[in-house]
TrEMBL record, chain A:
Pfam family, one: LUD_dom
Protein's UniProt name: LUD domain-containing protein
PANTHER family reported for this sequence: LACTATE UTILIZATION PROTEIN C
InterPro entries in alphabetical order: FTHF_cligase-like_sf (IPR024185), LUD_dom (IPR003741), NagB/RpiA_transferase-like (IPR037171)
Record domain LUD: where: 43-220
From TrEMBL, chain B:
Domain of life the protein comes from: Bacteria
Gene Ontology molecular function terms on file: 4 iron, 4 sulfur cluster binding; metal ion binding
PANTHER family: LACTATE UTILIZATION PROTEIN B
Name of the protein: Iron-sulfur cluster-binding protein
Keyword annotations from UniProtKB, A to Z: 4Fe-4S, Electron transport, Iron, Iron-sulfur, Metal-binding, Repeat, Transport
The species this protein was found in: Marinobacter salsuginis
Length: 223, 483
């Protein structure tokens, strides 16, 4: 007998004569307390994210590259990892070229194995899009793909995330259901609610444990 | 001031370690401060009692519902994960699980493993198993890293190094890593970050636990704050997740209330920094992520707990640690006193199924039964009720068939006879009256020692006259009428 057969056999024999309990999910419990007027969603998300050291900026959907350059310059960062093959990456690249920024734009265009050392030690910041945000918990949702791979939002010390104001949902349940996540998830989905942190020593909160030390969310006012 | 009577007969188990812990002022202070803070944080995270209770009820129903069709869900999970490209393995014992993990690492000729936080890997003592086979298995959660560096075990399931303060960590980093001493927590964390970053990059294999496994989509969900879980499951070319068989839930939406209950109960956070949903290895067109993802499903006594409808409720546990944060015993003796992977109230009801009640006979008794653990449990496990049940299992006749592994370890023939005598005395009025007469008249002969009771209390001495006597005299003096 295999371990699988033994385990399933034991479980089944313990359930002989019983009937499975009905599905007792109660949607109202995970949605009703977490509803916000559309104009309050940004404020809610912002206050929660700022409470955990996220820098949140609201900006126009066309002038955000300027803000990105400003934020990087303020920190004296020398390069930024972005995805020049997709819309926001192209917009950023166009702005940086037009304004002759000295910050180097890097692209994640090869398998991680080919440039792991550089990614881990020489990339200052990254910029990714998001699938949307969640007002209830102050969260941005990342849906990594070929253009914006998983490590892009994790390894560089500063992560800038673009969030469209129109894509902020009230709560996780609404977002999952309205976008029908269950029909097909990518290999990795991430809910990110601040920069990396730990309170493992004396419960003193310290940021920048293993992931980004700083998370900057740009809320694009596209409503 | 009365003199405290020392405990004279220490058993090497829980009681002995508890005595030691109770005399360690630093340890008691570290725990007191931490647990007070965690209790406040949890309370603040649930400002609306109705919402909290509704959610706990839902959490309980979801877990109980999942357990009521556990084998079907496990098969569905396996099917979906396999479709997604994840390899699923099954292990009945920790030895089998370790062999599986070792086999996967060996197939890749791996020598360095980074591990995210995983209580199941603690059950397996995976670090030691792999180290004996020449494989370095490094803990990457800051707290776990600190305790590993000091050759210790975690003392809390959420905050493994909670028993240490900054000064102690500073000394440890100085002694083991040659770092300059500092009590600045930020600097200490940055030392950990620098040291571990290189390890994440070089590791051949990343190991993680699983908070919830979703059968509907074939997804492994992990919650964490540090990013070490994401690093361990993304940067190395192989990811091995290890989990108990009870972690499966039917649908993706089920994790919405469960994650909320978990993060709010554990640390008072509305959500953790990262919630990581892993549904497969790197696809051919993707540029990072592990090439292989494996899931090891471990039994290790869980089917035993599952077989008993009452004890099955232990499998509801979502490992938030709230029960230990609120436990007056845990707060005073700390996690190491329990001597097992899972400390605190939940440990007291889980461990007997893994190790056998005979290995941890003191655990069910190390409780004041104040009920706090049951009151805060986000999935409403009736921990005090299960502790009482285990106390009963503990004293069952060992020659009779046992319902819990290792039951009957505290069975005492003398005690059984004493209770029989007590029963006889209290069910025969004439005998009872004679006993009462003798006990009051010959009170000077009462024994000076009464087992564990007199370790910390004076011996009970019968009164000069029984209550019956006094009441009868009172009635006589007042003409048989109450005054």
């Amino acid at each position: 007998m295999t371990a699988r057969a033994n385990i399933l056999g034991k479980l089944r024999s313990s359930l002989v004569g019983t009937t499975p309990r009905p599905d007792e999910f109660d949607e109202a419990l995970v949605t009703a307390p977490w509803r916000y007027a559309p104009e309050d969603r940004i404020a809610r998300l912002r206050s929660l994210m700022e409470a955990v050291h996220t820098e949140v900026h609201q900006c126009g959907s066309d002038n955000w590259p300027e803000l990105v350059a400003e934020l990087l310059n303020k920190r004296n960062l020398t390069n930024l990892l972005c995805a020049p093959s997709i819309e926001h990456g192209r917009a950023l690249q166009a702005y940086f070229e037009a304004t002759e920024q000295t910050i180097e734009l890097l692209a994640y265009d090869q398998p991680v194995e080919a440039w792991k050392e550089e990614l881990f030690w020489n990339v200052d910041a990254s910029l990714t899009g998001t699938l949307g945000g969640i007002a209830a918990t102050g969260t941005v949702v990342l849906w990594p793909d070929r253009h914006e791979p998983r490590l892009m939002s994790l390894v560089p010390p500063v992560h800038i995330a673009l969030l469209k104001a129109s894509e902020i949902h009230d709560n996780l349940y609404d977002m999952m259901v309205s976008q029908d996540w269950a029909a097909g998830l990518p290999t990795n989905v991430l809910l990110v609610s601040g920069p990396s942190k730990t309170a493992d020593i004396e419960q003193v909160l310290a940021y920048g444990a293993h992931g980004p030390r700083e998370l900057i969310v740009l809320v694009l006012e596209d409503l | 001031m009365s003199q405290r009577i020392p405990v004279t007969e220490l058993t090497p188990g829980f009681r002995g370690r508890a005595e030691e812990a109770l005399t360690d002022g630093q340890l008691r202070n570290n725990f007191r401060v931490a647990m007070d803070s965690l209790m406040t944080k949890r309370a603040n995270a649930f400002p609306d009692a109705d919402e909290r209770e509704g959610l706990r009820e839902l959490g309980n129903r979801l877990k109980a519902g999942a357990l009521s069709r556990l084998p079907d869900l496990l098969e569905q999970l396996e099917k979906k994960l396999t479709e997604n490209g994840v390899k699923v393995h099954w292990a009945e014992t920790v030895e089998e699980a370790n062999e599986l993990v070792h086999g996967i690492i060996e197939a890749r000729k791996g020598s360095q493993v980074v591990k995210g936080k995983s209580m199941v890997s603690e059950e397996m003592e995976m670090n030691d198993y792999l180290a004996e086979r020449g494989i370095e298995c490094l803990e990457s959660d800051m707290g776990e890293y600190i305790v590993q560096l000091d050759n210790e075990k975690p003392s809390h399931i959420i905050m493994p190094a909670i028993h240490k303060n900054a000064r102690q960590v500073s000394k440890l980093f100085h002694d083991k890593l040659g770092e300059p001493e500092t009590e600045d927590v930020n600097q200490l964390i940055q030392i950990g970050r620098r040291t571990l970053r290189r390890k994440f990059m070089d590791a051949d294999v990343g190991v993680s636990g699983v908070n919830f496994a979703i059968a509907e989509t074939g997804t492994l969900l992990l919650v964490e704050n540090e990013g070490n879980g994401r690093m361990s499951t993304t940067a190395p070319p192989v990811h091995i997740a290890v989990t108990g068989i009870e972690k499966v839930v039917p649908n993706l939406r089920d994790v919405v209330p469960l994650v909320s209950l978990l993060t709010r109960s554990a640390l008072g956070q509305p959500i953790t920094t990262y919630v990581n949903l892993i549904s497969g290895p790197r696809k051919p067109d993707e540029l990072d992520g592990p090439e292989e993802v494996h899931l090891v499903l471990l039994d290790n006594g869980r089917t035993g707990a599952f077989a008993d409808a009452q004890m099955r409720q232990t499998l509801n546990c979502i490992r938030c640690g709230a029960c230990m944060n609120h436990c007056p015993v845990y707060t005073r003796v700390g996690g190491h006193t329990y001597g097992e992977v899972y400390p605190g109230p939940i440990g007291k009801i889980i461990t007997p199924h893994m190790a056998g009640l005979d290995k941890v006979p003191d655990h069910p008794s190390a409780s004041s039964l104040c009920g706090a653990c049951g009151e805060v449990c986000p999935v409403k496990i009736p921990i005090p009720e299960l502790l009482q049940r285990l106390r009963q299992e503990n004293v069952k006749d060992p020659e009779q068939p046992q319902q819990v592994k290792g039951g009957g370890a505290k069975y005492s023939r003398t005690e059984r006879w004493i209770w029989r005598g007590w029963q006889m005395l209290n069910t025969r009025p004439a005998l009872y009256r004679s006993f009462l007469w003798a006990a009051t008249r010959f009170r000077a002969l009462a024994p000076k020692k009464a087992g564990p009771w007199t370790e910390n209390h004076s011996a009970p001495v019968p009164a000069r006259r029984s209550l019956h006597d006094l009441a009868a005299r009172h009635l006589d003096q007042n003409g048989g009428r109450p005054s």
